[in-house]
């Protein structure tokens, strides 16, 4: 999860992680929550973007709904919170970000957090790191709030030279926590609601799936038939998961209470337009700048360092 307070740092970091221009250089805010998939140094990752913590143009009901949606997009929980800042523009709001994270994600979330500092141009990285560690006490004080963990990234997403180092730092942090992802009461609530919605959608599409299988049985034989069925099942499963992540009972409750039924339809259909994603691996919960509703934090352990999740 890449968390920032305001400005473009979150979006620059998403571009840097995925190695492509997901967001244009002019983007400084986001009113919704979306998930993008890609690779970081050969590892499949998912990055979820949401509203900036200090975005004043979003109403409280809308923010609450999008924070819930962002949790649904990364269930069962993020492996890492990547907290993005511009190292030349640290604001008072940036300094307060760690406090808001504890309030909204749980008091243990900073154990899973790392600061990502954006810089511009072909600057000497060693000199920049010395500045963070030794000479700039504002930056040093900032990263100490996150266990002293930090990484520098170039605003130019085409610079791929530090991908492997960033992935290694994330892996080491996750391994030090037992190889687990971050969880909390509200992440568990999100997971339960998404699973219930998935079950409902599968029942609704049972006849469609059965008909598709019957057609395959007419066209294919033995091994090819198994291959086609597996591919179809995987695609349908990913489509149902994606739909359940952005439209379920938890989100509908938030929408109806805060925004009215007219907005519910538009919000759900708009989210469906570009949010269907396929299976993948480690989750980088990139609500870059997003803040998710307050909950008591914790660490849920899973087998292996960076366990695979079909949520990307």
Quick description:
With 312 residues, this protein is an alpha/beta fold.
Describe what you observe in this structure.
With 312 residues, the protein is α/β, with parallel strands linked by helices. It has eleven helices and nine strands. It has helices at residues 9-18, 60-72, 92-105, 125-135, 137-144, 163-176, 185-204, 206-219, 222-246, 249-258, 261-272; strands at 2-3, 34-40, 43-49, 81-86, 113-119, 150-154, 181-184, 282-284, 297-300. The strands form three sheets. The protein has a four-stranded parallel sheet with strand order 1-4-5-6, sandwiched between helices. A three-stranded mixed sheet has the order 2-3-8. The protein has a two-stranded antiparallel ribbon with strand order 7-9. β4 (81-86), α3 and β5 (113-119) form a beta-alpha-beta unit. α2 (60-72) packs antiparallel against α10 and α8 packs antiparallel against α9. The longest helix is centred in the last third of the chain and has 25 residues, at 222-246. The chain is globular, with a radius of gyration of 20 Å. The model is unreliable at 267-281 and 285-312 (pLDDT under 50). GO terms for molecular function: GTP binding. This is AIG1-type G domain-containing protein. It holds the Pfam family AIG1. Belongs to the TRAFAC class TrmE-Era-EngA-EngB-Septin-like GTPase superfamily. AIG1/Toc34/Toc159-like paraseptin GTPase family. IAN subfamily. Keywords: GTP-binding, Nucleotide-binding.
């Amino acid at each position: 999860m890449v968390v920032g307070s305001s400005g473009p740092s979150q979006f620059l970091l998403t571009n840097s992680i995925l190695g492509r221009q997901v967001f244009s250089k002019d983007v400084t805010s986001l009113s919704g929550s979306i998930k993008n998939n890609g690779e970081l140094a050969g590892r499949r990752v998912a990055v979820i973007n949401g509203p900036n913590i200090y975005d004043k143009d979003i109403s409280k009901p809308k923010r609450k709904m999008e924070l819930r949606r962002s949790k649904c997009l990364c269930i069962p929980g993020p492996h890492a919170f990547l907290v993005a800042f511009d190292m030349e523009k640290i604001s008072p709001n940036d300094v307060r970000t760690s406090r808001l994270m504890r309030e909204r994600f749980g008091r243990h979330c900073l154990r899973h957090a790392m600061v990502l500092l954006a810089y511009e141009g072909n600057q000497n990285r060693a000199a920049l790191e010395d500045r963070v560690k030794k000479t700039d006490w504002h930056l040093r004080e900032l990263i100490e709030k996150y266990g002293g963990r930090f990484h520098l990234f170039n605003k130019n997403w085409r610079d791929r030279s530090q991908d492997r180092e960033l992935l290694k730092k994330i892996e080491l942090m996750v391994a030090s926590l037992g190889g687990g992802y971050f969880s909390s009461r509200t992440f568990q609530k999100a997971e339960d609601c998404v699973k219930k919605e998935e079950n409902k959608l599968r029942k609704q599409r049972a006849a469609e799936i059965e008909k598709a299988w019957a057609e395959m049985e007419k066209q294919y034989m033995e091994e090819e038939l198994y291959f086609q069925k597996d591919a179809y099942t995987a695609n349908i499963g990913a489509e149902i998961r994606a739909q359940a992540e952005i439209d379920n009972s938890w989100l509908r409750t938030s929408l109806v209470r805060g925004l009215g039924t007219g907005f519910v339809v538009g919000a759900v259909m708009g989210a469906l337009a570009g949010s269907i994603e396929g299976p993948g691996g480690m989750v980088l919960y990139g609500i870059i700048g997003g803040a998710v509703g307050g909950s008591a934090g914790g660490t849920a352990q899973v087998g292996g360092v960076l366990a695979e999740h079909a949520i990307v």
